[in-house]
Backbone:
């Protein structure tokens, strides 16, 4: 599943299964050339944080290691990305809302 965000105001909803071990990609609407790290915060019953790897700095593409999360079927998690830059600044996306991760059941 590919997560795409077209600008800093867009809320994106994506889906996963609770036992998902497949890495997800996201295209952040930001040049990450001077970024030191990107963290993704998932809020459900609590907050879980994973560190994303930057796949393509200039296009803002990151990879999220979903196997590092504990997801519960039926939950909807709010997701935000925290980008730390080499000059010490921190940016958070999306700026106006949150992305959403909905955890689905197996079909059978």
Residues:
């Amino acid at each position: 599943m590919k997560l795409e965000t077209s600008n800093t105001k867009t809320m994106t909803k994506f889906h996963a299964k609770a036992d998902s071990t497949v890495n997800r990609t996201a295209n952040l609407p930001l040049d990450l050339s001077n970024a030191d790290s990107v963290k993704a915060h998932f809020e459900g019953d609590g907050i879980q944080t994973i560190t994303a790897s930057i796949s393509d700095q200039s296009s803002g593409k990151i990879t999220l290691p979903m196997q590092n999360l504990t997801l519960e079927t039926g939950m909807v998690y709010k997701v935000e990305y925290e980008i730390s830059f080499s000059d010490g600044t921190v940016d958070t996306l999306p700026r106006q809302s949150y992305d959403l991760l909905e955890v689905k059941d197996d079909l059978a």
